Amino acid sequence: MQVFARFRVRTLVAICAIAVSGLQALAEDVPRVTIATKRFGGVQLMSVGIDGSNPQQLTSEPDDATQPTWSPDGSKVAYVVGPTYHGKIKIMDADGKNAHLLFEDDRSQRTPQWSPDGKQIAFSMAMDDNFNYDLFVINVDGTGLKNLTNSPIFEADPAWSPDGKKLTYVIAVPGQYPNLCVMNADGSEQQNDILHRTLNVAVYPSWTHDGKQITFGAPDDNGQIQITQVNADGSGGTVLTHGPQPHSYAVWSPDGQYLAYVSDPGEESGDLCIYDVVAGEHKVVLKGEVFQELFRDARPSWVPSDKKAK
Question: How far apart (Å, rounded) are the C-alpha atoms in residues 158 and 112?
């Protein structure tokens, strides 16, 4: 009897170990995104599975950490530290070590975006005290700073096309809402209004995974900000989100199966949401946990697949 009892115990332990291992494998297979949140005190970066699993704090900055963007190989994260209108871009290793300023400059910096080849970061930076921001690119080692727009109006929120050849972004003339724009990644051939209409707050354009369309926040027929998608030349148009809440800050997963986005643009916090194309379902992953104060707001950033479980 004792031998049988010991056999049963060992069998149950083995079964439990296999079950736990299986659950861990499933958790590791879940795609992850990175956001700014107040969950840990102050504002810090957190990665989380698109089912809400395994939330992990990434930063422990003395100042607020916002606006994350992962390097394509998953080895580093760029983000912004500091209060509104005084942000500075930092880079750290994926494990949180070796955090340092990307470059030394007293001007306000925001919305960094890593290039698909991993060599550059696009961002916007203040040129004066009159809300004039230009778009820049810089090498990831802090050299080669280049002004792409060099104009007297506001330009911000850049996003690279998947092939790295183009940037989409917004411009805003003082006193007006922004327009959606596209240019070559070297700053040439700037198309300053591909929609031929103004939008609203929290446009934050991004590209579909195949580079054929642009996704962004825009007023729907009822004036509510919802996620809209158009062809790269501005033609066509499909509204992807609906309902009583506004939505923006949309970014597609690299395989095009999921769209991460956030509710309530213009508010200090919003819901992290996921649209699953295959299932045809929208779901709320985190209720009211995404920090998105205007001018420190940003799209979620997809964690590269080889770093999902980190």
Answer: 8
What would the CATH number be for the domain defined by 32-307? 2.120.10.30
CB 167 within 8 A of CB 122: yes
Residuewise pLDDT in 10s, the chain (310 residues):
444 444 443 444 343 343 333 334 344 689 999 999 999 989 999 999 999 999 999 999 999 999 999 999 999 999 999 999 999 999 999 999 999 999 999 999 999 999 999 999 999 999 987 789 999 999 999 999 999 999 999 999 999 999 999 999 999 988 889 999 999 999 999 998 999 999 998 999 999 999 999 999 999 999 999 999 999 999 999 999 999 999 999 999 999 999 999 999 989 999 999 999 999 999 999 999 999 999 999 999 999 986 543 4
Tokens found for residue 308: 């999902």
CA distance 87 to 125: 9
For 152, 184, 191, 247, 267, the CA distances from 134, given in Å and listed in that order, are 8, 15, 15, 26, 25
Whether 219 and 239 have beta carbons less than 8 Å apart is answered as no
Q: How many whole angstroms separate alpha carbon 181 and alpha carbon 190?
A: 7
Could you tell me the pTM of the whole model? 0.89
